[in-house]
Design a protein that fits this description.
- By secondary structure, the chain is mainly α.
- It has one domain: Cytochrome c-like domain (Cytochrome Bc1 Complex, Chain D, domain 2, Orthogonal Bundle).
- It has 6 helices and no strands.
Length: about 100
């Protein structure tokens, strides 16, 4: 095989790889953060059991709830630890995500 043909094949195969990468689905930061809530609150906040559903709650309600968990104003066994790990920006992203579900 000639060097020109080898180079051409390498360039062609690298172009295919790049096109596959660019067609990958992008996941927003809000979706990634919300995924961590799914273990307890269910997919998209639609709880299948005893844990409260958070889908469709207003963003302001979710923001205030997370702030209350963080400060200890709202007692919890787990949520205080989870909520305290988020920045204000992340709390806003999470709240907006679940308010639209």
């Amino acid at each position: 095989m000639s060097i020109k043909r080898t180079v051409a094949l390498l360039l062609f195969s690298s172009c295919l790889s790049v096109s596959n990468i660019s067609s990958a689905v992008e996941i927003s930061q809000a979706t990634m953060l919300a995924n961590s809530c799914a273990a307890c609150h269910g997919t998209h906040g639609k709880s299948p059991g005893a844990i409260p559903a958070i889908n469709g709650k207003s963003a302001s309600f979710i923001i205030q709830s997370l702030k209350d968990f963080t400060s200890g104003a709202r007692p919890s066994t787990v949520m205080g630890r989870h909520a305290s790990g988020y920045s204000e920006k992340e709390i806003k992203l999470i709240a907006e995500f679940f308010s639209k579900q």
